[in-house]
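=== Structure Prediction Worksheet ===
Name of assembly: unnamed complex
Input type: mixed (protein and possibly other molecules)
Chain count: three
Listed entries:
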Amino acid sequence: MTEPSPSDTILPLVFDRVGLRVGGVLLLDEISLCLQSGTRSVILGPNGSGKSLSLRLAHGLLKPTTGRIDWSHGDARERALRQAMVFETPVLLRRSARANVEYALALHGVPRADRRARAVDFLERTGLGPLAERRARVLSAGERQRLALARAWATDPEVLFLDEPTAALDPRATRAVEELILSISEAGTKIVMTTHDLLQARRIADEVLFFCEGRLLECSEAAQFFELPESDEARAFLRGDLSW
Amino acid sequence: MQDLAQAFATAFSMIGSLDPVLLEIVGLSLEVSLGALFFAAVVGLPFGGAVALFRFPGRRAVVVLMNALMGLPPVVVGLLVYLVLSRSGPLGGLGWLFTPTAMIVAQFVLITPIVAALTRQVMQDLWEEYELQLRSLGASPLRAIPTLLWDGRFQLMTSLLAGFGRAIAEVGAVIIVGGNIAHVTRVMTTAIALETSKGDLSLALALGIILLGLALAINAAASILADWGRGYDG
Amino acid sequence: MVAARWLATVVGCGVLGAALGAGAENRPVVLASTTSTENSGLYDAILPLFEKASGEKVRVVAVGTGQAIRIAEAGDADVLLVHDRASEERFVEQGYGVRRLDVMANDFVIVGPASDPAKIRGEKDAARALATIAATKAPFVSRGDDSGTHKAELRVWSQSGVDPAEASGRWYREVGNGMGATLNTAVAMGAYTLSDRGTWLSFRNRGDHVIVVEGEPRLMNPYSVIAVDSKRHPHVNAKGAQRLIEWLRSPEGQAAIGEFRLGGERLFIPNADGSIRPGT
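=== Predicted Assembly ===
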């Protein structure tokens, strides 16, 4: 996989005082952040703090009520093709695992002749090689999430968003998924992941964005956040007092 | 009750002996109703999907209309199609009246709203489940319609079966546009009407039993197919 | 792409359908007639003779009298064969038909339950029979559908001096239905009704009903055959219609009509010479 040249990368992604109000309720309040390439950004915080919403806003699935979201390059279509997202529970089509990956490749304009080989390649990278022809929906939860990762990875995204990707998985599957995330990161994709699992954040993050009650309270290098958090809420969270 | 017993006996003997007249009208019934179902699916599935996935002004009115049209009385449809296909009507030049083609057209008009309305409901539920993921993958609503139609194929089978059931069972539309002409446009339901009007109730009942058996067999086959498919595909 | 392929298929099917529907080179002759005539089995018996002799194909659309006339007026049929003199003459007068020609006749019968509540069995005067039914308020079922049979029934009522419409819904029940359905209703209700002999003879749900009045001149029922005028509807199969009408009125056709038996009984009297007229 080749890194995009500095002139046409879509990063950095900038949130400029982004707010989200739905049905009269203010869900996100003046979020400003900047996501650069090269680092693994983890959005951390208790449930209901606005992590998923921020991810969906970043990925373009939601529109902000106030503020702006700016990528550095490209029109809407190009930007969409350079990102991918993995949800907590993946939605897979009623087809084989391989066909699911090929579907994503087709949407990205990969020529038909190349799709099969590429799909099989990425299934193998995610350890699903022997399961390529299995119906996607009969796979185990961990296998399904790895399939979602294979599907996302195969489209060569610049940015991979992950929304609580292991929240529904057992420890073994969680570890497998985390290893894949690290591989994808090493291959050059920017990782933006939400989690409420502190230990997972410690394992994955280069950078932590701490959310609480719809506000971005802290944004700092991982080591610094875990050693010396600035806000009371962060300290409480790290102690385990704000888990819910 | 004696009629009923005799009817069962007649039904089985007709089936057993592969009565040629029976085979002819069963064959035509299937040809007409399956033909209508095919075109209803071609139109109704994408249309139902489009109404489900797109937001547009007047959408609610369209949905209400589709649901209401599910209750179109067959005899009214027959009358309207007759007026259109009559020589004195706008499409009379096609010469379709009193042929199986007119019957397919009439049943198509009758069942397309059913297929479309039920498809819309299924597709709306599917879109709720799939929307975020599909949009994330880069599929526009337009691109998503065929994807969801295929992925929802087992649920959609119900909408097709409902349409077929309505078609194979109706008599009002096909008798007006077809004319119940022997060997040409006589199907099971019009034959039943004819035998009833001749007072041959046990023959009419026998045909009715066969029609019911046919509908049962088709539904059973579809159900088995769906179960197998769901088990295989998850 | 996919969309273009689908469109081509649909259009292709439409064209194919049109081609199939329009029929083969030998266009059939569409005969609009009444259900009672068709149900008697007459057409099944005699039309194959015509088809073999002429090479033409006949398609019989059997509906109620009124509908048959409308179909012919719309040009959806080539020949009209019904039994309602007034409507037939109006059809020709208004330019839809070429000429009214006599072809055959049968007769009506009054049927009723074996218990014969009005005690009219064997009555030789149909009008008196109906008057008795009215007087005893015995149930009577009418076609009520403006058909030739219905109009004949109303003619006999008018000669009986009774207007049954006043009793509609009580002992006089108007069902608005074909002959077979009307007979089903009459048998189920234990009521009298007027029926053409052909439908009665082939009717399989008689219960204990029997013929109570028959054979008087008022109950005669002549049929006419009319070709739909090609000046009015240029597309009609005028040649085929002409051949059918000529055959029906030819010695062969008339013999076939007269030889037709239903339950061993002769049902239709050849009437090409028009000697049998509607009962006055």
